[in-house]
Amino acid sequence: MRKQERARFVMAKLEELYPEVPIPLDHQDPYTLLIAVLLSAQCTDVRVNKVTPHLFAKADTPQKMIGISPEAIREIIRPCGLSERKAQAIWDLSHILLDKHGGRVPQSFEDLEALPGVGHKTASVVMAQAFGVPAFPVDTHIHRLANRWKLTQSKSVTKTEKDLKQVFPRDRWNRLHLQIIFFGREYCPARGHAPDACPICSVIA
Hints:
By secondary structure, this protein is mainly alpha-helical. The chain is built from twelve helices and no strands. Helix 2 packs antiparallel against helix 8, helix 5 crosses helix 6 and helix 9 (about 140-150) crosses helix 10. It comes from Sulfidibacter corallicola.
């Protein structure tokens, strides 16, 4: 198969397997989504979803978040790992949202990526899932599958994102991002992968 043929097959198979794509991180609004995505760095969505109810019960707005100390935030989010750095980032970005953005999460990549603890991937998730802006957040799992499916030969997530945006239609980016994540967890893991049993790898790999 050529790359475009592989891409069409991947889209069709993912749509067949995952016609519904719920957002994995529990949240109520753009702010709580931003915090949840920040916490998900090097942490599973399942663990984040266990931690955030405790955090958001105390502070689910920037105003409330700056009312508690970074140390108090750190104690709550400790199970997510990197708790000291993440807690300080959450506290600092909450101040910035209040000082520069009227307490609202900005709707631009530039403003989001200027916030502490927010990289391009986090900004892409927020833009896609909170605001519906076409984006293709690439984490290590999507990077792995894109290489496994020969949709890219890149060693960097930045180049992989560019390659996936070129091969898939813009109006499918947001859905595909989630569909690939769900597929990777269920059928195409990093370890213990059985290519012959994988609905995609068994056809195109």
